[in-house]
Write a structure and sequence with these properties.
Blueprint: H1 2-9, H2 14-19, H3 33-70, E1 126-130, H4 131-138, H5 141-147, H6 154-167, E2 172-176, H7 180-190, H8 192-208
Antiparallel strand pairs: 1-2
Helix pairs in contact: 4-7, 6-8
Length: 214
């Protein structure tokens, strides 16, 4: 009875303690947030790199296609044809005929463009004249002298012309020799009345006061 009391109230025996299984240790998993972030960042960077490579390749292909479309086509839609060498000539650079050795076309020479012996164009001949003097000379002075009874000697004739020109305004012009008759015709019609008036006055004065003895 004592043993039973002792065994029942006492500590468990070694045999009983040996038979009881030991408690198993639980498995603990530690997650490192830094490793997770690095992995995600790497994946994102890899995807972005692939996308950038695809965009760059697409832009390069589009640019090449645009350059081909904008390039001017060859004349006639075909490539320029290379002329075949003439008979007796080869394609070698040593046997090609120089452009300077080609004969000049008939009827033209190298000296015709600037031949120093060719006659130069005629120079334009300009003169200056007093229109009034030329118009006085063209008047029928004999008719004035006879009508107004002026001495017909050369001195009186010269005095009549000189007096008329003194009272007329001078009119100097510069013109070519060939165009002078046209100018005189124009100014003759324009100054006809003043010229006739001054000639009549000159004839009357020379008749009244001649410069020589009668």
């Amino acid at each position: 009875v004592l043993n039973l009391l002792t065994n029942g109230s006492g500590e468990p025996t070694a045999s009983s303690s040996a038979k009881s299984p030991a408690p198993k240790a639980s498995k603990i998993t530690v997650v490192d947030e830094a490793d997770t972030n690095s992995r995600v960042s790497g994946e994102i960077l890899s995807e972005l790199t692939k996308e950038l490579v695809r965009e760059t390749a697409q832009e390069a292909s589009e640019k090449a296609a645009g350059d081909r479309a904008s390039a001017p086509p060859a004349p006639g839609g075909q490539e320029a044809a290379i002329p075949a060498p003439a008979e007796g000539e080869t394609k070698g650079p040593g046997n090609q005929k120089k452009a300077s050795d080609s004969p000049e076309p008939e009827g033209t020479t190298a000296d015709e463009a600037g031949d120093p012996g060719a006659p130069a164009p005629a120079a334009r001949n300009f003169i200056f004249v007093n229109v009034m003097e030329e118009l006085i000379k063209k008047q029928n002075l004999d008719a004035f002298i006879e009508e107004y009874q002026v001495c017909p000697c050369s001195r009186c004739r010269a005095d009549v012309c000189a007096l008329a020109l003194t009272w007329l305004p001078p009119k100097y012009v510069v013109a070519e020799q060939d165009s002078l008759p046209i100018l005189l015709s124009y100014y003759g019609n324009r100054y006809r009345i003043p010229i006739l008036t001054q000639l009549v006055k000159a004839c009357i004065q020379v008749r009244q006061q001649p410069r020589h003895d009668r």
